[in-house]
Amino acid sequence: MVEFTLTIGKDPESKLKVIIKEENIMFIQLAFLSDLDGFTPHRDDLSEALAGNIDWRHDLECAIAAGCYTVIHRNKVLAIGGNHGDQCWFVTSEDVAELSQKNRMRFRKIIMQFRDLLLDEYPELWNFMWEGNNNHRRFLTSIGAVFHDQYVQMANGRFQLFTIGGSSCAQSQEE
């Protein structure tokens, strides 16, 4: 068993305790450029990048250089993401679709722990999501996101504002 603590954000008290057991080899760590080797974003993330005219690889390289996080499972990168202040984001890989139900719940739990640490620092989290990304809409709703009637038109699609925080977040927490 390996155990370590990851500090997230500026507050040294914002810590995510990670315990790696043989049967539970999914964890979050600081991202490295090498995490992009073999990383293929999920088709929904690729469609979202196309809708926003975003060079996903370049943007992830910049985010990693600035400091973000990687969710790892069995030596595969499941997601790369982080935050810019109260704006939160993650890009998932195709490997997420192949996870068992049990491991999908582990992934969700890691993302929720990350969310909770950010909510300790910021009262509300936000971002815009491409309206065609139904998988992410379901996932974000399951972790407390509320979608608002506010849109931004990008190059090839519309993006909708979501927020996470306050009472909507508390309703989605699972212990």
Trace the largest sheet across and list its strands. Answer: 3-4-5-6
- How do the SSEs run, as a string of H and E? EEEHHEEEHEHEEH
Number of contiguous helices: 5
Give unreliable regions as ranges.
169-175
SSE arrangement:
Blueprint: E1 2-7, E2 15-20, E3 26-30, H1 43-51, H2 56-66, E4 69-73, E5 76-84, E6 87-92, H3 101-121, E7 124-130, H4 134-142, E8 145-153, E9 158-165, H5 166-172
Antiparallel strand pairs: 1-2, 3-4, 4-5, 5-6, 7-9, 8-9
Structure notes:
By secondary structure, the protein is α+β, with helices and mostly antiparallel strands. The chain has a domain at 2-122. Helices cover 33% and strands 35% of the residues. It has helices spanning 43-51, 56-66, 101-121, 134-142, 166-172; strands at residues 2-7, 15-20, 26-30, 69-73, 76-84, 87-92, 124-130, 145-153, 158-165. A four-stranded antiparallel β-sheet has the order 3-4-5-6, sandwiched between helices. It has a three-stranded antiparallel β-sheet with strand order 7-9-8. Strands 1-2 form a two-stranded antiparallel sheet. The protein is globular, with a radius of gyration of 16 Å.
